[in-house]
Amino acid sequence: MKTKRFLFVITLAIILSGVSSAQDCGFYSMSKGMALGYQNLDAKGKITGTNRTTCLDVSSVGTATLYKMKGEYSDAKNNLTTREFELKCEDGNFYLDMQSILDPKSMEGFKDMEVSVDANDMMYPSVLIAGQPLPDASITIAASSGGVNLMNMVVNITNRKVIGSESVTVPAGTFDCYKITYDVETKLMFKIVSTVTEYVNMGVGSVKTETYDKKGKLAGSTVLIEVSK
User: For 3-228, CATH number?
Assistant: First the structure.
């Protein structure tokens, strides 16, 4: 299993399209049938894969609005992986299921194991302001077989902050965005530290994300290429 594939990078971008059909979730306005497409790029700008997420259904449970999503992930060799997951809007805030940020190919390594998950989901408020701190997020995955612990993975996301606003141009067009930065620490057999910069637009959600290694060198990015409503 390649440890680096657990890095928090790609799938976050495709699911920050958010929600608002039943509540106001500010920057995240997903409705049934809406689809967003993204390209994953390496440090040199070469395409390493694509992601496409479609909203299959919208429902209400108590005070929360739930969004049933379908994600389709294709690598550079056009190997396709699909999965379904849910997003949530409650009290005007958008909650990102931390399990859905993990590379689905990496998670295949857990398929024959007993898995337990403890997560603190990532929250995005309906209003973003320059200088605003945002809550931390984390996920811990413990894998075992026959009661014997085989593997633990921990991802901690800290120092989330709204830096300011910026106009960003991607293949899908030019968008006015808020710029958010945060640190990511992934622990498996050893620790990997990176930083992420994401650009979020009102009504579309994530437009672009950039991931940098601990030396500040660009490791990869994800850009919006399609918005279908």
Answer: 2.40.360.20
